[in-house]
Task: structure prediction
Amino acid sequence: MSRSFQDTIPPDPCAPDAGRTSGILLHPTSLPGWGIGDLGHAAFRFVDWLVDAGQRYWQILPLVAVDDGGSPYNGLSAMAGNTLLVSPEMLIRDGLLDDASAAGFDEYAISRGELTAIYAWKAALLDRAYERAGLPGGDWLIARREFEERCRGWLPDYALFRALQNHFPGVRWFEWPIELRRRDPEALATWREQLADEINRYIFREFIFERQWLALRSYANSRGVRIIGDVPIFVAYDSADVWAHPELFVLNGDSRPLLVSGVPPDYFSATGQRWGNPLYRWDVLAARGYDWWIERFRRTLELVDVARVDHFRAFEAYWEINADEATAINGRWMTGPGAPFFRSVERQLGRLPLIAEDLGLITPEVERLRDELGYPGMRVFQFAFDGDPHNPHLPAGYPPVSVAYTGTHDNDTIMSWWAGLGDDERGRVRHALGVADPDHWSFVEAVMRSGSRLAVFPLQDVLGLGAEARMNTPGRAADNWGWRLADLPSGEAAHRLRAVTGHAAREVAPPELMAPSGGVS
Result:
């Protein structure tokens, strides 16, 4: 095994003593795999590609369990993992499946909108693995008991929630019988006993997900690649979090939201965006020492090395909308928990390696909070060319304590963006780049050369892909989150990216570490 340089990568990529580094944004669901991108062979080979390409970070989207819509920002739990990512080939390797069990499913058969088929297929495979894992053999039992003990703060409620969802198909938790909506202790005890086998199956699935994910993360770390995860500030109403902790959210006596999240009208939307997530009772959370949030950050940082905090501005002030409003127009700004919240979490967990997603309507108060906490913000090349010479997204002005992007998961690909620009914007882009006819490498190079200590690129931008490869279009209800690679990127793309990274004076892996050090066979 070749030597590791894991310890040379600072946990905070924008700390004063951090070097200039770069990485790739790609969710594991976009990898080639069985039914959907998974944590098997292709994921390990992608880590090898990152090393060959000189990249030190792999940024992903939330790893949480998702519903049929597939959005990792509308998860069934803030704590539970997405068991759709479990790799059948890894289950075979571990002796929990035989080859015949996983046969008959074309790995490229699933396209957008077919998550239901993946659910059914993966659930059947995991049930077979569950039965086999129950056979005599102490190692699995010991490991599972340790997992259950470590996750006892959220796992029992989540597993019961999923089992009840199956028992009441198509019925959301706030439409369940009143004794379950209100979590009557006797009713919960009865249902836990009645659904014990189903509950155990969901616990097993989470155990297997964590086992496979941590093996992949460990491999990445051993090769000098750190993982950047994601923490959406809000949680879905139809989630285990709201059902298990209704006292933490602004609900009425019938378990319905009184106030919901969103953002006010702006240049992009005359009616704003009404997201609909229930809002937190920050006063209740503060009185409890922010215990739920501490557990959430603890869980996230068990799985990743760094976390991007989505909609960071809401910790300073958030847009509150009455739940009976159809749009976000008639909302109001409310004061968020601010620095005392983060200080409380850090007293329990230590310094948080966070990136503040500070996009959208950002005020001086939000910037002061970000800077007081010392978290890097984000700079996005695609937002820079509105004609304002003081636009903070112009790449010539990126501060070192920031993370630079060509675009995010919510943006179009850089080449599709470029194709859609008007003449005035194109002129400004050409002037900034000093290139008359830019290709995708022109944009990558511009962000690489910026002053940000960390630069991150959606893989689609490095590969020069068009609109067909867009991951998400905000405000569009369907046809999101489904983009996948047919094959891993080429060695030629890795070689070019490594050269661009080095020319921008960003750190790359030493040549002796470029050969794969193991992974899965």
